[in-house]
Amino acid sequence: MGSFLLAVATSTVLATLLNQGITQWRDWIGRRENAKLSAMYAVTFLLDYFEQCATRRGDKDTFISSDGHAGVDWGGLPDLDAYPEDIDWKRIGLDLTERMFAFRVRIKSAGTFIADQYDFNPPDGGDGSVFEYLTSEGLEALSIARAISKRHGLRLLVSEEELSSEGFLIETEAERVERIRAWIESNAQKLPAIHGPVDGVEVALRALG
After folding, report:
1. 45, 62, 73, 201: which has the highest count of C-beta atoms within 10 A?
2. Contact yes or no for 138/54 (Cβ under 8 A)
3. Ramachandran class of 188: left when φ > 0, alpha when ψ lies in -120 to 50, beta otherwise
């Protein structure tokens, strides 16, 4: 009788532990799936912003190179919409969540800086800043998207077109900086006499259009 009761008690304990284990496993699977879904929402959002920056950069390059006959003369960064409500920030991870919210602050600060450049150096004093920030913030959006994808085991949702856009942003910004450097070097002696204590980079940007 004692052995029978012991066996019943043991089986009851084992059944309880098994049920707890199954419940915990299901919870873990649910949390993992929720984390991946949140990561996918975040990555898709960031990639869209990255592509908007690349498109604006191309539009503005075209506008300037065509003397205004083509393209669009964008005067700032794309608006950064509210992050998707479906993102569960606890599942994304504290450090990556911090990067995403810091990114929003960066975009706001960049927008303010660009506006100030146009206000204090009209009519096109902010053009150089627009080029610079379209590149830097577009690439930052892509960088965060890659970090989230790596953390959560996602296949990064980057198309060949988007990879091409990344190369375009990097190359065009490098070319712009090189043109500025070359212009400043070739006009170094003239700058103080013509413009006085003016930022050589701003002078170069105006001269280069």
Report:
1. 45
2. yes
3. alpha
